[in-house]
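Chapter summary example.
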Amino acid sequence: MKSGLELKLEETVKRIPPFDEASAALAERHSDGLTKPPGSLGKLEAAARQLAGITGELWPDLSRKAVIVMAGDHGVCEEGVSAFPQSVTPQMVMNFLHGGAAVNVLARQADAAVVCVDIGVNADLEHERLISRKIVRGTANMAKQPAMTREEALLAILAGIEIVEQQVQQGYRLFATGEMGIGNTTASAALTTVLTGLRPEKSVGRGTGINDESWKNKVAVVKRAIEVNGPDPSDPVDVLAKVGGAEIAGLVGVIIGAAANRCPVVIDGYISSAAALVASRIAEQTKPFMLASHLSQEQGHSKLLQSIGLSPMMQLEMRLGEGTGAVLCFHFINAALLLMKEMATFESAGVSKG
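The structure predicted for these 354 residues follows.
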């Protein structure tokens, strides 16, 4: 029998509308009539088509945009998987709130809000701009036991949905996924391994910049976590609970919530893409609402995006997280919409078609 939390999640999934193929086709026809060879603007044209299909509007107003940065700690840090201590997580959360992190700088440039959420930090944090939805005080060490209970994973997903709903009520229509959590590339690699079948040697990357010896240890930790917990690949919530993280679960909710509200959601790097993979397995109908921002330097990211069916807009050799790549992608989205709205057509400009 399904729990009340699972039924609540199912209710949101049922609200996800179908991708509007008619609006997407209209956008494509309009794009083909602009003063350029058809398809010559590449992914910008594809993005314009997708945004029309998501919103049902030829050139939607997506000027109100926000990056939702979910923060949580990971018990697996006990295994020495990161070059940074766990204490960096709460320190960086305060940096976000004071506006000093890379994502803050890039969000200011893109005229986007930074919404910072404590969903699982192992510290007491207070700030007027902090959204506190603490589900756990850090996950358990997944190399020894499940990272979370199923209930905790569901509560984190629902918290992400709730936060998006609140932002939509405030007028935001374009979202990006961001995260902070020392150790979360280990959880993301474990999720990728279980849900795609990619070997840990291919899913585990360098994260914060670990050396060869630490990387081998990280691979072994991911293998051990999967062996100890036996996550069920056919049950994405089970996988998320056993080898995931609270901030990853929160982002799963952000993605599902955005789709349920007909809002595009820009996916950041490896950790955000792991959340996108889980969201797509919970609700396949979320896929058309996602745009992949960039290809991370984490070695498993390409395969992870392929398994979802996403193609990144950029390749900047980034591996910071926080939502930095996704916020940079806001500029490309704005460009795609402006081209659709402001370019002359062959007819209006008196230009002969080829």
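To summarize the output: The chain has a mean pLDDT of 97.
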